[in-house]
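Continuing the series of single-chain predictions for the mutant panel. This is the parent chain; the variants come on the following pages.
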Amino acid sequence: MKLVFLVLRIGLGLMLLAFGTNKFFWFMPDFDFSAYPQAEHLFKVLRFSWYEPVGKGYLMGLVGLTELMVGLLLVLKKWVPLALIVLVPISVNIVLFHAFVNLPNIGPALLVAIVNGVLIYRHKEKYKPLFK
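Parent structure:
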């Protein structure tokens, strides 16, 4: 069972490193939003701080930096419980974005959220002092 959690932790970390880096260099193609104008509009506003591709927004950079930090912590096995908790708001927002405006592309979002939840459950003993 330890091997399963190791694969999940490192896999999630590598996925976050890839997607976090993509938020700075945009080397991966964006999802096809052609049939979902609301998703395209929201995505461009988050990426450029405007609907048209001018300027650079701060939000995707902040999310990318957080994904890079969490991914690095997961791969290096440093402060894993903290990294997983920091990832929760990002996971929730990714799932909600796809659930409300781009449902066909929800697969990777659900994968990140489910793996994050499984790993949080794996470290549940570390969180007990928070709820005393």
